[in-house]
Amino acid sequence: MKVSILGAGAGGAAAVAELTLAGHEVTLWNRSADTLAPFIAEGGVAYEGVLGEGLAVPRLITADMKAAIASADVAVVVLPTFSHAPVARSLAEAGWPADRPVVLNPGHTGGALEFAHAYRGVRADVPPIAEFSTLTYVARKYRPDRVTVTGRARQVRAAALPGGRAALDAACVLFPGASPVADVLVAGLANANLVLHPPGAVLGAAWVEATGGNFTFYVEAMTPGVARTMRQLDDERLAVAAAFGHRLPNLIEEMKLIGTVESSVTDTQDFAAAITGGEANKRIKGPDSLQHRYYREDFGHGLLPFIELADIASVATPVARSLFTLAQALVGIDYRSGGRTAESMGIAGMTRTELIHFVRLQ
């Protein structure tokens, strides 16, 4: 399959490695030529970790969107979620064919809805769109020309917007861990990061600023108080999912399916023990500043769309709202300005029943 990978961060670089190894013809695009320059100088994407070690050589590495998507069978968007709307508009302006699928790896919460709404603002012929609940890798770029992949998801939730079956099929072919679910509400509410990151980001903010992130986020910062807050936030997530008619496993059970909590864990109610014992995440350092993506992404594009969905479902979410409010005060920004709101997802004013209908029978 001819695949355009849109995004050259750690996730995009890992996708280049995995899909090249699987025999697909890959093109790598990124808006910033500076990000691509080390890969061009290296002659490809160097990788190490659970995918093995080597150099993945894309057919083309480019900052030109039109060149990147020429003749592609599928576009795989592997970018922070705050880039979804701008990339949707860029893809539409570049002339992406209406019958070619787009896969968001990941969509996180509300990604496919926002992507489609932004795309529709440029062109009416929205392509098939599918999304994953979380990124298919635990990966970091410790060097600008190399990706270190410490984990590859065993399973991620995958869903498509109505009419997007071709995108879901492509997602399952490219990423064998994709597990199709009923609709994008299931996938979006299975987003582990909306529960996993905000409690530690808010409650550990002083440590972030004092040390520049010189601590392990999933081990040293996973204190009993953080874990208790996380568990209550997770209960709110499960309640919102239930209001939309979906029964989801708790965070620890979901992370076991993904592979970031060890399969040997039996006590899925002990959040601290389960998370600190996860091999894939245990060496990952804390955010180096309040501008880190745990603050930039997981509040305005994680907690915010979750709160918007909770409002539509008429479910109280006091912990989510408290963390969201505190994060805005900590970082000093208004997450609603440019964040993933009901308006940006194209679902403003909908009732619970109307939203269920919209994501299934649109």
Shape: globular
Helix content estimate: 40-55%
Strand order of the largest sheet: 5-2-1-6-7-8-11-12
Tell me the strand percentage band. Answer: 5-15%
The chain-level mean pLDDT equals: 96
* Content-based structural category: alpha/beta
Topology:
Blueprint (H helix, E strand, L loop, with lengths): L1 E5 L3 H12 L3 E5 L3 H10 L2 E5 L4 E3 L3 E3 L2 H5 L4 E4 L6 H10 L8 E3 L6 H10 L8 E4 L4 E7 L2 E7 L3 E5 L4 H10 L3 E3 L3 H6 L3 H4 L1 H6 L1 H7 L12 H20 L7 H8 L12 H6 L16 H4 L2 H15 L4 H14 L20 H10 L1
Parallel strand pairs: 1-2, 1-6, 2-5, 3-10, 6-7, 7-8, 11-12
Antiparallel strand pairs: 3-4, 8-11, 9-10
Helix pairs in contact: 4-5, 15-16
Key structural traits:
single chain, 362 residues, N-(1-d-carboxylethyl)-l-norvaline Dehydrogenase, domain 2, 2 domains, 8-stranded mixed beta sheet, 4-stranded mixed beta sheet, 17 helices, 12 strands, 43% helix, globular
Question: What does it look like?
Answer:
The chain is of the alpha/beta class. It has two domains: 2-185, NAD(P)-binding Rossmann-like Domain (Rossmann fold), CATH 3.40.50; 193-361, N-(1-d-carboxylethyl)-l-norvaline Dehydrogenase, domain 2 (Orthogonal Bundle), CATH 1.10.1040. Helices cover 43% and strands 15% of the residues. It contains 17 helices and twelve strands. Strands 5-2-1-6-7-8-11-12 form an eight-stranded mixed beta sheet, sandwiched between helices. The chain has a four-stranded mixed beta sheet with strand order 4-3-10-9. The two termini are 29 Å apart.
